[in-house]
Amino acid sequence: MSLLLEYSRWAPIYEQIRREFGFSWAREEAAAAQLRTLLSPATRSRPHERVTARLGGREVVVVGLAPRAGPPPLWRLPFSPAGVAVAAADGATATCLEAGVVPDVIATDLDGPVPSEVTANGRGSLVVVHAHGDNRDLLEEWVPQFPGELVGSWAGPPQDGLLDDGGFTDGDRAAFLAEAAGAVRVLLWGFDFERTDERDPALRRRKEAKLGWAARVLSELEKTRPGFLWNWHRDGSQTAYSAAGISGASTR
Q1: 12 or 121: whose pLDDT is higher?
Q2: Which residue blocks in 22-103 are alpha helix, DSSP H?
């Protein structure tokens, strides 16, 4: 669980999310159980420690998939003795790979371009696969195809072999993973909580509602650790986290 946002505090937040979107708790539990059976004993072992080895003590750039955001310009960042880690949110993995960046960690519920995530996993990315009630078929199809290191997660109570560090969409969940791993701070690149490329009106409204919740849960994380979250803008500037006026997207 997040170092500062314990499950007892996260649970009522997710309960509100679950009720708003009509997520079945029984389906959530079934997906988590399914994921555990798909993961090998070694993959279920020490999940927190393995994520911490990638992100702990470092600045972490969490890459979202905003319209026209593109890959993060890592060369603009000042030198950091501990180094900079990259955590990609689902479909942003393809954007990173196209720019020659192999993410250290990928947070995914498998509803994006999964082949790029499989490719990155084969090149060294640790993939945190998230189980929820709507992706059981995707878990069955894709989990066995990852050739590299995996960790499983879900949104329910802590259980052996699966992480729950908080967060709702892939993008904000990556930020929560970084905080739980002991990252120094998080730079959000490619996040936009107001705009989406979805053309279908009903799907667009649903995605916008999810982005609204992503902004809210990140605000909750910022309350627990002021100064941890930063917006990284296209002009290279960095500002303390605010859900308004930044570019990027985080998608479930």
Answers
A1: 121
A2: 25-38, 41-44, 47-55, 92-98
Q: Is residue 70 part of a domain?
A: yes
DSSP H stretches of helix in the chain:
7-21, 25-38, 41-44, 47-55, 92-98, 114-122, 136-142, 170-180, 201-224
Residue 82 identity (one-letter amino acid): A
Pairwise CA distance, residues 122 & 209, whole Å:
34
Structure confidence by residue, pLDDT tens digits, 142-194? 999 999 999 999 999 888 899 998 899 999 999 999 999 999 999 999 998 87
Residue listed under structure tokens 């500062």: 4
**Predicted confidence (pLDDT) at residue 198 exceeds the cutoff of 90:** no
The count of C-alpha atoms lying within 13 angstroms of the C-alpha of 20, restricted to the half-sphere facing its C-beta, is 13
Q: At what angle do helices 201-224 and 7-21 cross, to 10 degrees?
A: 170
Residue 97 lies in domain: 7-248
Q: Look at the block and give the residue holding tokens 């954007």.
A: 95
For residue 248 the two structure tokens come to: 């990027």
pLDDT score at 206: 80
Amino acid, res. 135:
N
Most distant CA pair in the chain, distance: 47
Q: What is the mean pLDDT of the chain?
A: 89
| Residue 24 within a domain | yes
Q: Has residue 2 been placed in a domain?
A: no
Angle, helix 201-224 to helix 170-180, in steps of 10 degrees: 20
Q: What is the pLDDT of residue 245?
A: 46
Is residue 80 situated within a structural domain?
yes
How are beta strands 238-240 and 229-232 bridged, if at all? Answer: antiparallel
The pTM of the full predicted model, rounded to 2 decimals, is: 0.92
Domain count, the chain: 1
DSSP-assigned beta bridge partners for residue 162: 152, 159
Q: SS3 of 232, please?
A: strand
